[in-house]
């Protein structure tokens, strides 16, 4: 039986700034909502309302951010908040 690879091992969009696996965003060197401090093996998912889930198998770290940016309008503040929050959490460990 063939072992399934981790989501972070499969970048199916090498032509874009944001890497994507099958159903997951994969940590990319250029653009990543998980910030700069998560490992290259990190993978996650974001949603329109501002939610974010990121998993870093190397650090054994799971971060789930539940927000509702729709309530305040569609301002881009949540995009900056995600990366800053993930960096803060990762740096504190």
TrEMBL record:
GO terms for molecular function: hydrolase activity. Signal peptide: none annotated. The keyword Transport does not apply. Pfam families: Beta-lactamase. Residues 13-81 form the Beta-lactamase-related domain. InterPro entries: Beta-lactam-related, Beta-lactam/transpept-like. Keywords: Hydrolase. This is Serine hydrolase. It comes from Virgibacillus halodenitrificans.
């Amino acid at each position: 039986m063939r072992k399934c690879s981790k989501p972070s091992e499969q970048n199916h969009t090498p032509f874009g700034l944001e890497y994507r696996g099958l159903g997951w965003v994969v940590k990319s060197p250029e653009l990543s909502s998980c910030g700069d401090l998560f490992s290259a093996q990190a993978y996650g998912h974001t949603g329109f309302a501002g939610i974010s889930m990121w998993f870093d198998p190397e650090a054994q770290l799971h971060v789930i951010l539940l927000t509702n940016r729709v309530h305040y309008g569609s301002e881009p503040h949540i995009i900056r908040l995600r990366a800053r929050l993930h960096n803060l959490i990762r740096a504190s460990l």
